[in-house]
Design a protein that fits this description.
Number of helices: 4
Radius of gyration: 17 Å
Number of strands: 8
Structural class: alpha/beta
Shape: globular
Order of helices and strands: EEEEEHEHEHEH
Strand order of the largest sheet: 1-2-6-3-7-8
Strand content: 25-35%
Low-confidence stretches: 166-179, 186-192
Mean pLDDT: 75
Helix content: 25-40%
Distance between the termini: 31 Å
């Protein structure tokens, strides 16, 4: 634990086709694997089923990807930001967007990307001792996915924190902020 676990989910990149012809009513498929990432806190216990680890779905913005080498921006300040939550006992996961599979089009909150988030969430719940409900955390255009999760799965979302737009920029990711409650109060105080 305390490391980054990568896994893939398989999704159909094609949007649902709401047209039919006399010859077919079948959807076309363009299945691809999207990389997902999970960070578990050092307090994670697979065996303590009475105390599942709370889970945060992080929806990153459009500026970066998840690869074998990095998560989102890959900067130390970003990893420190994630560690703020894992050090407080939360597991955090994210999925790659499909931009690298579509020739550059951004898919913020699209049906294929939402399918990836939902499949990743289901996979994590099946394979790890995490809570059934989740917290949402989004940055920049990742907020589109976060808002869709609120719309579709609102009864399973404990709380949501969207950080876009964020007039204070990366200053909120200061390594001096180590308490999740302090971080949330900062966002609220600044009207984010």
């Amino acid at each position: 634990t305390g490391e980054y676990i990568r896994f893939n989910v398989n999704i159909n990149l094609n949007w649902p086709d709401d047209t039919t012809t006399a010859s077919t009513n079948a959807e076309t498929e363009n299945n691809v694997d999207l990389m997902c990432i999970l960070s578990l806190p050092t307090t994670y216990s697979a065996s303590d089923l009475n105390n599942p680890t709370p889970l945060i779905m992080f929806c990153h913005g459009a500026s970066s990807q998840i690869t074998e080498d990095k998560w989102y921006t890959g900067s130390n300040s970003f990893y420190n930001f994630i560690r703020t939550f894992t050090n407080a006992g939360y597991a955090v996961f994210d999925v790659n967007n499909t931009r690298n599979r579509t020739g550059g089009f951004n898919d913020w909150g699209s049906l294929p990307l939402m399918a990836a988030y939902i499949k990743a969430w289901q996979y994590i719940k099946k394979h790890y001792n995490v809570s059934e409900n989740l917290y949402l955390l989004s940055d920049s255009m990742g907020t589109a996915a976060s808002l869709n999760m609120l719309k579709w799965y609102g009864s399973e979302v404990i709380a949501a924190l969207q950080t876009a737009p964020r007039p204070m920029g990366c200053a909120l990711r200061s390594t001096t902020v180590t308490d999740v409650n302090t971080l949330i109060r900062m966002y609220v105080a600044w009207g984010l």
